[in-house]
Amino acid sequence: MQNPSYKIDDFFKACKDYKSDLFIWDCAINDAAKYYNLKSVKEIAKYIVTYKLNPDRRFVNSIPLESWRRTDLSAPMVDAYSFNAGAFIGYVAFFYVPNAKWTIKSFHKDTSKETLRVPMFQEKLLPVVSGSSLGRLKGAKT
Asked: Phi/psi of residue 83, each to 5°?
């Protein structure tokens, strides 16, 4: 079995110190807004620090960054995790380049069929509640 290339706690520390230690690709920010309603680097970092990608996170893989163009350094490894995001499974992929910042390249909904078969995720996902049902749950009159 493959192991992560990075210590997840180092990534969490970078998210805590996001102003100096974290960079997020635009596509990851756009997906975070779409799936999590998180619209800034600060909001994404706070979400990660607060929830630690949920204790149920699952390491997916560690692969070399495909879009690496530098010739003076070999491509960094990208660690990917799936995690329980409430009503769906989340996915985050990140990497680190020495003397640079931690970088989140992906932050979206995980649609991998393999992930959706993992029992720990099937058992713990929250039911999706519609707006009208949510009002009844809170005791509001409809």
From this structure: -155, 155
pLDDT tens across 73-120, in order? 889 999 999 998 888 889 999 999 888 899 999 999 988 755 554 555
From CA 25, how far away is CA 79, in angstroms rounded?
A: 15
Does 142 map to a domain?
Answer: no
> Environment class of residue 44 by beta-carbon count within 10 Å: exposed (0-12), middle (13-18) or buried (19+)?
buried
CATH number for the domain harbouring residue 52: 3.30.2310
**Structural domains of the chain, count:** 1
Structure tokens at 137: 């749950």
Spatial CA neighbour of 38 closest among 100, 104, 102: 104
- Does 17 have pLDDT greater than 60? yes
> Which range of residues forms the domain containing residue 112?
8-65+74-137
In the structure encoding, which two tokens stand for residue 14, read together?
A: 């970078």
Are 108 and 91 in contact by the 8 Å Cβ rule? The answer is yes
Structure tokens at 17: 């110190």
Whole-model pTM: value is 0.78
